[in-house]
Amino acid sequence: MAARQSPLRTDNVGVRLQRAGQSLWLDTISRNLLQSGALARYVAELAVTGLSSNPTILGHAMAAGSDYDASLRAFVAQGVTDPQDLVYSAALEELAPAAALFRHVWETTGGVDGYVSLEVPPDLAYSSSRSVSVALHLWEQARIPNLLVKIPGTPPGLTAMEELVAAGVGVNVTLLFSETHYLQTEDAYMRALERRLGAGGTVAVPSVASVFVSRWDTAADPILPGSLHGALGIAMAKQVYPSYRSMLASDRWRTLAAAGARPQRVLWASTSVKDPAYPTRTT
Known about the structure:
Elements: H1 13-19, E1 24-26, H2 31-35, H3 38-46, E2 48-51, H4 55-63, H5 69-77, H6 83-108, E3 116-119, H7 128-142, E4 147-152, H8 155-166, E5 171-176, H9 179-198, E6 207-212, H10 214-220, H11 232-249, H12 251-258, E7 265-269
Helix pairs in contact: 5-6, 7-8, 8-9, 9-11, 10-11
């Protein structure tokens, strides 16, 4: 279902974020979101320029109703019987049209923005070799130019991310929780680009570092005085951002940038309000 292409409202959050040099990405995906035209409206009217998903999001969407039943039956009829393969086949079936909605953003920004993400199974979080193998399979199966493979930022996950970026695969490194965690991710990304540069390859391989914010408050608020509730996540983010800026000013990064590298953008993840006492609207 095609969405009516209304002009962007100049007072909405997405437009204001764009003016500040930021991007608004949606952290959900479902078949109904696509078929109802809601995602197209978010892109056309609210300046949403990207989308992320994870196994939990996909699982909830598939369990919520019968939207996926026909597709799953068709895949089984084609001989796809492994539950994980069924889930990813159905996920790619909707990520492809979602990516198409962001394709113009990806093209006009030169590959800086306009991505969708697909995460490897969570049970691979501590196996770098299996993560690389599955990620490469998903990348080749999808054939979506503005797709990022999502890898958790465990130590083996960062090894997998380095190998994937070195192979030219765009990666969204997820589940980062501190400045130290971010710095480790940044270092692995630059090592991968340096490897590509040394081998004579292009260094224009995209990546984002997903730093989780509100989960700090979820964990810490019960043991902190009321005056500090809801403050720790933002404080952590304020530590990460200067590190990102310092990376951009480093000689190491300038060498890569001169060869055509793009910064590994920081994605502020898990920003939804978890405590019902907190305000849920932005004014």
